[in-house]
UniProtKB/TrEMBL annotation:
<comment type="similarity">
    <text>Belongs to the non-flavoprotein flavin reductase family.</text>
</comment>
<dbReference type="InterPro" id="IPR002563">
    <property type="entry name" value="Flavin_Rdtase-like_dom"/>
</dbReference>
<dbReference type="Pfam" id="PF01613">
    <property type="entry name" value="Flavin_Reduct"/>
</dbReference>
<keyword id="KW-0560">Oxidoreductase</keyword>
<protein>
    <submittedName>
        <fullName>Flavin reductase family protein</fullName>
        <ecNumber>1.-.-.-</ecNumber>
    </submittedName>
</protein>
<dbReference type="InterPro" id="IPR012349">
    <property type="entry name" value="Split_barrel_FMN-bd"/>
</dbReference>
<dbReference type="InterPro" id="IPR050268">
    <property type="entry name" value="NADH-dep_flavin_reductase"/>
</dbReference>
<feature type="domain" description="Flavin reductase like">
    <location>
        <begin position="17"/>
        <end position="161"/>
    </location>
</feature>
<dbReference type="GO" id="GO:0016491">
    <property type="term" value="F:oxidoreductase activity"/>
</dbReference>
Length: 169
């Protein structure tokens, strides 16, 4: 019997998985004291159409997640091409990430970032433990989609925009 191959190391994992390009979101909530919380999040995905569900994965070390979990609600803000600095502001722990940003309090108790391409308001339906992250499943309560501008994209640690579709061969 051959021994199972050792699990890949962190560098190999990041290198291979970083080749999966995605959009970027900021997941937000407003805590019981009325303070907004949020973090940059690439692991957002659409999950189910009927019922409408989405998911994201959050590190167990996140300082924003415990504040969100207590509210039972979150909003996913899909970032537009011009929002690289917004992403950077939400990719740090601590401080007032919302300072200097234009945003509004939604009726769902979440924070909507001005200029986002779409906002998905959810209630927390389920939280699953998975390694050093949690998988958070949300029931979609309201959707807001806006036209104008393309998405902010993330690939191998860099930010990209795309203003054209790949033509047919
Ligand atoms: C492009 C990008 C995508 C990210 N995606 C995630 C993610 O999916 N899940 C996660 O937990 N952290 C993700 N992060 C890291 C968090 O945004 C970062 O750790 C942040 O400091 C967490 O803030 P918090 O401690 O307030 O929760 C991402 C960061 C960047 C720049």
């Amino acid at each position: 019997m051959t021994a199972p191959a050792p699990a890949p190391g962190e560098a190999a994992f990041r290198d291979a998985l970083g080749r999966f390009a995605s959009g970027i979101t900021v997941v937000t909530s407003i805590d019981a004291a009325g303070r907004p919380a949020g973090f940059a999040c690439q692991s957002f995905a659409s999950l189910s159409l009927d019922p409408p569900l989405v998911l994201f994965c959050v590190a167990r070390t996140s300082t924003s997640w415990p504040k969100m979990a207590g509210t039972g609600r979150f909003a996913v803000n899909v970032l537009a091409a011009g929002q690289r600095d917004v992403c950077r502001a939400f990719a740090v722990s601590g401080g007032d990430k919302f300072a200097g940003l234009s945003w509004t309090r939604s009726p769902h108790g979440t924070a909507h970032l001005d200029g986002a391409l779409a906002t998905v308001d959810c209630t927390i339906a389920d939280v699953h433990e998975a390694g050093d992250h949690l998988i958070v499943v949300g029931s979609v309560r309201e959707l807001d989609a806006r036209d104008g501008g393309g998405p902010l994209l993330y690939y191998r640690g860099d930010y990209f925009t795309s203003d054209h579709a790949v033509a047919d061969a």
